[in-house]
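User
Please review the sequence:
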Amino acid sequence: MKVHHLGVPVEELTSSVDIYERLGFQVVKRFTLGEEKIAFMEKNEWLVELIESPDSLQGHICLEVKDASEIPAEAVWIEGPFRMDDWSSSFYQLGEEVIEWLIVEETKRG
């Protein structure tokens, strides 16, 4: 298990991307998922997911695992899976925390 990214809710995606670029981050992926506008920003192998959404969001951590058996049994499913390219992810409640669990296809893991 490793940290994949940190999710950060933002008011306006374009201005937030500009701020992170001034801090040395680069856009590695930008897309829309439903009503959410999302940009993944990278610096020194750190990924930050900027999320503009009409809904109130809290920040989250995303943990990458080999398969769903690594997700703790006491974690309560909230939503997902969301499938993109070579991965799928789902959100779970674990205690008071919301955690995104990302499973990368075996053939795409580095």
Notes: Residues 20 and 39 are 11 Å apart (CA to CA). The longest helix spans residues 13-22. The chain has one helix and eight strands.
